[in-house]
Amino acid sequence: MTSLHPRAGRRCHNAVNPLHSTVYFSPDFTAEMARIGVEDPRAAYFAGRGAAMGAVGPGAVAAAFYNFNHELIAKHLPAVWDTASPEAVLAARLRAVDTTLRRLLGDDAVASAEMAEAAALALRAAEACTRHARPLYAAHADLPVPAEPHLAYWHAATLLREHRGDGHLAALLVADLDPLEALVSHTATGKGMAPRWILATRGWGRTDWEAAQSRLRERGLIDADGELTEAGTALRAELEEHTDRLDRAPYEHLGAEGVERLTELGRGFLTTAALAGAFPEDLTGKG
């Protein structure tokens, strides 16, 4: 055990994870996937994030990704694997990570001692991640660690992201929130993805969204205006605390000083990437 603050792991995750996600918003990823024949952006995302699990079908991806409509996934999987193998997709994704990080951070940051330090710290934390009941983490943990530090950092960030994400799905099940209820309630916090982004990318319609709102109102979790009630706020807080508990091992393994340093380095890289336009301006919020 360490003297780690209960929320130190969450703070570190919030600094490291977004840099992992930049590739899925990157035009470099779109271009690399198109070069191997996957031109539809939704097919590219499902393949790009799911390829570590192999040539899986829509059921496996719906289970592992949680908040996408199975019908949308089934339009692209397993058909995408007839165009590009999982191995080809993983190689394209890593090429996109390289060009994306170089574009967002600059070659000096990519080659810096700080990047090498961040990679070493993140990989050290990931040593304590566990595979059981964590399909996306476990699949990525079987991939080789890239040699270049910026790619190793991205790989480690992926491991930490998927480890926490898999645990978060367990917490959602305990909270009895289905995929769209989870999205609606997260958006109501003001920190989740904006509804227009959800409806444009997750395969749900406005009637699905409104039905989920109705279910949450019946449970007393949101009010007539779609805002979280006291009970809803408490539930979302418990969700994050439950996720923290399930995700504590890597950060306890790294130790308080290591977590603090990784958080500092991660925030620096993330700030640079965000200022370089890594994310859409309207990605989050209630609008």
Automatic annotation (TrEMBL):
Stored InterPro entries: HTH_67
One Pfam family recorded for the sequence: HTH_67
NCBIfam families in alphabetical order: SCO6745_fam_HTH (NF047719)
Protein name: SalK
Protein species of origin: Streptomyces kurssanovii
Lineage: Bacteria, Bacillati, Actinomycetota, Actinomycetes, Kitasatosporales
